[in-house]
Amino acid sequence: MKSVLVTGAKGQLGKSIQKIASDYPQLHFTFADSKDLDITDPKSIAEKLSNKAFSHCINCAAYTNVENSEKEPEKAFKVNSQGVRNLALLCQEQQTVLIHISTDYVFDGEKGSPYLVTDTTNPINVYGASKLEGEQHIQNLMSAYFIVRTSWLYSEYGKNFYKTILQKAKEGADLSVTDEQVGCPTHAENLARYVLDLVVEDRETYGIHHFTDEESLSWYGFAQKILSENNLADKVRLEKAKNYRTFARRPKYSVLKK
Ligand SMILES: NC(=O)C1=CN([C@@H]2O[C@H](COP(=O)(O)OP(=O)(O)OC[C@H]3O[C@@H](n4cnc5c(N)ncnc54)[C@H](OP(=O)(O)O)[C@@H]3O)[C@@H](O)[C@H]2O)C=CC1
Ligand SMILES: Cc1cn([C@H]2C[C@H](O)[C@@H](COP(=O)(O)OP(=O)(O)O[C@H]3O[C@@H](C)C(=O)[C@@H](O)[C@H]3O)O2)c(=O)[nH]c1=O
């Protein structure tokens, strides 16, 4: 039986994997949150990853606060770059296949058409730069790995754009949302199924992969969809924001091509 370690298990992807784990009875799961396993601490990783206990490790641990990453870049790099390096070293030593999740924000958004896995990266914010460094450590240190880039994750768990918009709408706030960035919102459960299928199917197509849901939208378009799915479209005022103020720059167009 394949044995799968899931790090960052209390984040939205980690929880989505836990939700569907019973659909994969052929896999044995160990879920580790940041207290059980801190990827910035090599000793903490080695306590779990020893004696070749795991065939696969799905790394859901990350520093995902895009705005705070600009203010505290060292925190983003510590987890998304150094932490991932620690994990890659141990996985390589233990012959554990690493399935690592990365982001559309490794691209600058200037291409204007969907990004291929072979396209040049050029992050324009700290979070994207830290995630790119994480990817590079894995590529340099490992032979059996999947780097799965995805985008605009949402789910019932954690903090995400879907929940923020819904919350604001339910409070009766007027909404002002940018239409200046386009990407593919992706339900975390669909990504969870994709990564678990990678494990089950024993694929050895190692390297970088892109996985997103199909529809590309602006954040404004996504907000429209969220309101209409929740029968709130007639009840809330939604306007297109021009120059919505943020600390971090974000790619204008970050659709990923599978
Ligand atoms: N959210 C999104 O829109 C997107 C996310 N991604 C990537 O997908 C992956 C999953 O994202 P998502 O589930 O949304 O992220 P979340 O922020 O919901 O979860 C991340 C988890 O990582 C944990 N964590 C943070 N630091 C450490 C550490 N040092 N050691 C162990 N665990 C740690 C956090 O725990 P705690 O809260 O206890 O610190 C948290 O539970 C990440 O790699 C992210 O970069 C890619 C594209 C889009
Ligand atoms: C909440 C809100 C956001 N916005 C804008 C700000 C920003 O430009 C855009 C998205 O906002 P957020 O800050 O919610 O999303 P952001 O944190 O940028 O989301 C990103 O997270 C990381 C982890 C990823 O890897 C990316 O794929 C992407 O999902 O929408 C509005 O215009 N109006 C609003 O009311």
Automatic annotation (TrEMBL):
Name by which UniProt lists this protein: dTDP-4-dehydrorhamnose reductase
Cellular component GO terms held in the UniProt record: cytosol
Pathway(s) it belongs to: Carbohydrate biosynthesis; dTDP-L-rhamnose biosynthesis
Annotated PANTHER family: DTDP-4-DEHYDRORHAMNOSE REDUCTASE, METHIONINE ADENOSYLTRANSFERASE 2 SUBUNIT BETA
Entry function: Catalyzes the reduction of dTDP-6-deoxy-L-lyxo-4-hexulose to yield dTDP-L-rhamnose.
KW NADP (keyword) present: yes
A biological process term (GO) from this entry: dTDP-rhamnose biosynthetic process
Keyword NADP carried by entry: yes
Entry keywords, A to Z: NADP, Oxidoreductase
Organism: Zobellia galactanivorans (strain DSM 12802 / CCUG 47099 / CIP 106680 / NCIMB 13871 / Dsij)
One Pfam family cited in the UniProt record for this chain: RmlD_sub_bind
An example molecular function term from Gene Ontology annotations: dTDP-4-dehydrorhamnose reductase activity
Classification via InterPro entries: dTDP_dehydrorham_reduct (IPR005913), NAD(P)-bd_dom_sf (IPR036291), RmlD-like-bd (IPR029903)
Record field: catalytic activity: dTDP-beta-L-rhamnose + NADP(+) = dTDP-4-dehydro-beta-L-rhamnose + NADPH + H(+)
Family per record: Belongs to the dTDP-4-dehydrorhamnose reductase family.
Protein's gene: rmlD
Signal peptide (residue range): none
Residue span, RmlD-like substrate binding domain: 3-257
Superkingdom of the organism of origin: Bacteria
